[in-house]
Design goal:
2 copies of one chain form a homodimer. The first copy, chain A, is α/β, with parallel strands linked by helices. In chain A, 44% of the residues lie in helices and 16% in strands. Chain A contains 14 helices and 12 strands. A 6-stranded parallel beta sheet of chain A has the order 2-1-3-4-5-11, with helices on both faces. Chain A has a 6-stranded mixed beta sheet with strand order 7-6-8-9-10-12. Chains A and B meet through helix 4, helix 5, strand 2, helix 6 and helix 12 of A and helix 4, helix 5, strand 2, helix 6 and helix 12 of B. Strand 2 (93-97) of chain A pairs antiparallel with strand 2 of chain B, so a sheet runs across the interface. Chain A binds a DNA duplex through helix 2 and helix 4.
Amino acid sequence: MNIGEIARRAGVSRSTVSYALSGKRPVSEETRRKIQRVVDELGYRPSASARALANGRTSTLGLVFPPAGNHYTGMQLDFIGSVVEAAAAYDYDVLLSPSGVDSDRSFQRLLGERRVDGAILMEIRLEDDRVDHLSALAFPSVAIGRTARPEGAWWVGLDHTALVERCVHHLADLGHRRIAFVNRPEQLLRTGYESAHRGLEGFTKAAAERGLTVRTYCCGDDADSGQTCVERILHDDPATTALVTLNEAALGGLYRGLARAGRHVPRDFSVTGVVAGRWAETVTPQLTAADVPAAEMGRLAVDLLVERLDHPDAPPRHHLLTPPISLRASTGPAGARPDTDTGTDTAR
Amino acid sequence: MNIGEIARRAGVSRSTVSYALSGKRPVSEETRRKIQRVVDELGYRPSASARALANGRTSTLGLVFPPAGNHYTGMQLDFIGSVVEAAAAYDYDVLLSPSGVDSDRSFQRLLGERRVDGAILMEIRLEDDRVDHLSALAFPSVAIGRTARPEGAWWVGLDHTALVERCVHHLADLGHRRIAFVNRPEQLLRTGYESAHRGLEGFTKAAAERGLTVRTYCCGDDADSGQTCVERILHDDPATTALVTLNEAALGGLYRGLARAGRHVPRDFSVTGVVAGRWAETVTPQLTAADVPAAEMGRLAVDLLVERLDHPDAPPRHHLLTPPISLRASTGPAGARPDTDTGTDTAR
DNA sequence: CACTTCACGCGAACCGGTTCGACAACCGAT
DNA sequence: ATCGGTTGTCGAACCGGTTCGCGTGAAGTG
């Protein structure tokens, strides 16, 4: 079942078999066919380990995703799926690595033991040890997300700042003056998670530009937290008429909280944000949102990484995406119900 | 950076370095420390490819998941995440393979090129080529799901039949007499997808036992399809008062369809089914459902596979799980609103 | 003091491919 | 007949580990 066996049966040398299969040197049509027949008969396939050892390439990409214990969001699934598919199109396999903090065990495995030719990093933080580490090593990698100083790096990212700004402007245009921002969990914000930071930045900036009264909240990645968060928002400022969120996992809970408080979406309360399209369509009314093009981002990341692998000294490239806001049904003009009705919640 | 380099610097032979690091033969404390110092200084890590070639084990598990183009569900994400985590605990990496149909390219890569020591299969069909193929090859694998004849195989599965039966009984106990079943997409049912079949079987059986009037539907894996499906259900039999579903991606759409038709959950209409707990808690009212313990299943699958790898001729084992129904808020007694009100939908 | 025993370390072979340099056979051109 | 250039094939070295068998020096024993 190894190349020697094939060579013996075909009556040629091992190197000839190798050349016949790889085509890296001409082989006469006759011996090529002879070899091919033996290969087909035995169903021979060259061992990936041996090949990797010999030519130093594993044909495998590493996909580094967030630390264990975190909730996984739907977006992450879309990244994973699209990365795997895109990689397969280039004849690469994908090795999953549950790495979070820098220099942890499985991260070491990928690089130190040379299991992968390149890596794609998810869940980027503004100051990211992993990115620094990889770039110091000049190890081919592409980040899905963008650090504080992304110059000279390879990445594909979403312009969360601009997207959230647009959401705020959209709401302001509709007449909303008191808006809340529902961010990802505080722990993520504290550790410098990119989208949480840039989203917040965009929110603050746009709110200032429009002179809005705003509050910002962190919210756990689950429905219950979303519900609690809405309770806090309406308690802190019952006159709030809209919110912007990045937290797709909490979305259902946000809606529930609003319903419980007797706020009808979009009549008395508008909701918008940046979430995957699939989630935006799951809630009722469907969410007006900038749809995260996760599948496209995964594909682009693989494209970049493969390019970087094929041309080791190509200049750094990146893609910054700014998908448009999809108008659905969760936002509407402010003041359909007068602002005066703010004393107590109408429902328990 | 290879073992020869370490040996040279430590002034010993390559084999001694190998033994010192693996501990497979005793090495004097002194030389061991000498070697360890050099290793630490240079940050040496043995090449995975070379090791794999030498000892025939890749320390990698394959995770075979559904064909491209499918929507991925939240459940699948939970499987992937828990498998990766559990594998890491055993010092295995996980290689993702987007294989669907049998003997397709990437499936061949995993096995033919010996990239993995064992495989975990997801999205099992009752007659599954991949399972047959692997068991014919005696290749170590564990299925998440159970074929029509699972005897002698390694798997971890959910007793969809029993779970859906329980859902039906739960509804029947509440007085519901006309119940619909919302299955996964027709294409999955047609190709023999396990959960769709067994779920349907359990539904039919329990409905017969309780003498219920039922209809069964297939529904696409997205919110819009869910909404459309509810419209069909209420059109086909406006007296329907409850539904059971396996389709978590459609859940939001089902709720929307009911709301649009003016049916309040759970006052005029009960909903239940088998979905991941996270999803059940996202909708409002929260879904009374048998929560799919996806994370546990992934972990168990890895446990089984590792056991099988460590003891090549251990007898086949499996786990059939039957999680309890979590009572939440989406089911209630039938007839809170009289059955007579069935002429036309009250809302558009 | 010679004789086993044991702990330790070494060299060589091997895993299964790839790749380089050499060489033989054949071609047409001088 | 000789020479230069192809074309097709082979042998050997190499990738970076693991593992087996053997040799050696020190310790233990009668």
